[in-house]
Amino acid sequence: LFRSLPMKEEEIRPQDIFDEYLRLCEIDSREYFSQASAIKIPCPACGANGAHSFEKKGFSYEVCPDCDTLFASPRPPFEAFMSYYRDSPSTRYWAEVFYPVTAEARKEKLWKPKAHLIKDFLNSFPAREVILDIGGGFGVFAEVATEIIKVPVAVIEPSVHLAQSCREKGFEVIEKPLEEVCISEVPQGPRCFVSFELFEHLHDPRRFLKSLHGLMEPGDCLVMTTLSAAGLDILVLWERAKAVFPPHHLNFFTPDSIRGLMREIGFVQVDVQTPGKLDLSILQNHLHEIEDRFWSFYLSRASEQSLDRMQEILVQEKMSSHMMIFGAKE
Questions:
Q1: Helix ranges, the chain (H)
Q2: Which residues, 6 or more positions from 226, have their beta carbon under 8 angstroms from its beta carbon?
Q3: Fewer CB atoms inside 10 Å of the end CB: C or N, the chain?
């Protein structure tokens, strides 16, 4: 289904702007979470007790010994995260600086290819009458999907400002967190629910999936993307990986652990792919931080053709850190 095309990290995350965003996140992390009373949680995928792995910017991360999920624990309360996302300087920087600068590149390099992949996926299902974009943000995917998939899109978006941005683009918006949405508020007819780069942020991933499954009717399908703890760049860099940055990214499932949780909740036809494009580009940008001698040697000498072939192997073996999950309700 997937073919990974070459891409460089700099194309969608200019280093100076991204570094400034991470700097602000680190300051905000201390401001909003240092005094919050954190609670130890079990593995969000399988419920086992995690083993401590590392500390990063005031947050502790554990690895599940049973399913290899990486997750933040102890975890501050949900209210602390809501306050952070509403008011923090790093959140404003993302919305006012980072996103506008990278919007066009992300639209071309990320959102349009994603829309084509979903269009191919939907060919396996009867006609969809609506797509529901959970956490639709500025409405960029909704715009692209309307053009490429040619199916009406509605957005579930709790942020007041982002919801207004989607309305101004002509989209129907449910201005609530998914967990608070009622069945009566969701457009009827055969539906495809989509959720992009949201799952790793969730305070309670299991509750999110249960709520989503409850909103779906038999025959509805789901497409979701998130980060994988079994992805190459995350495994090699580990606590030094920029993808592991609290308070944003709390959950790193693996293809096996997300598949297991979804099946437990009741999803069927669950398939997991890792159509990532950036693992090797990310590692090259952090060559000075890599301790593994093989990857240090290979990345400093490999040709572009070799890098492209290696990235394609990662996709085929489901070892890219960008994970795409498909499921349905029976």
A1: 9-12, 15-33, 78-87, 89-93, 99-106, 112-122, 140-148, 160-168, 205-215, 232-237, 255-265, 279-285, 293-301, 304-316
A2: 197, 198, 199, 200, 251, 253, 258, 323, 325
A3: C
Q: What H or E segment, with its residue span, contains residue 221?
A: strand 221-227
- Please say whether the beta carbons of 200 and 226 come within 8 A: yes
- What does the alpha-carbon distance between residue 22 and residue 242 come to, in Å, rounded to a whole number? 8
What the block records as the tokens of 300 is 């400093």
Q: How far apart are CA 255 and CA 323, in angstroms?
A: 7
Whether residue 8 is predicted with pLDDT greater than 80 in this model: the reply is no
Q: Per residue in 260-313, pLDDT tens?
A: 999 999 999 999 999 999 999 999 999 999 999 999 999 999 999 999 999 999
Residue 309: its pLDDT value, please? 97
- Is 40 exposed, middle or buried, given 0-12, 13-18 or 19+ CB atoms closer than 10 A? exposed
Q: How many CB atoms lie within 10 A of CB 219?
A: 13
| pLDDT above 60 (res 48) | yes
d(CA 257, CA 68): 8
- Extract the tokens encoding 130: 């609506």
The helix or strand, by DSSP H or E, that contains position 56, with its residue range, turns out to be strand 51-56
- Picking from 230, 140, 154, the residue whose alpha carbon sits closest to that of residue 192 is 154
Strand partners, 61: 54, 72
Residues 6+ apart with CB under 8 A from 192: 118, 122, 125, 128, 130, 131, 132, 151, 220, 221, 222, 223
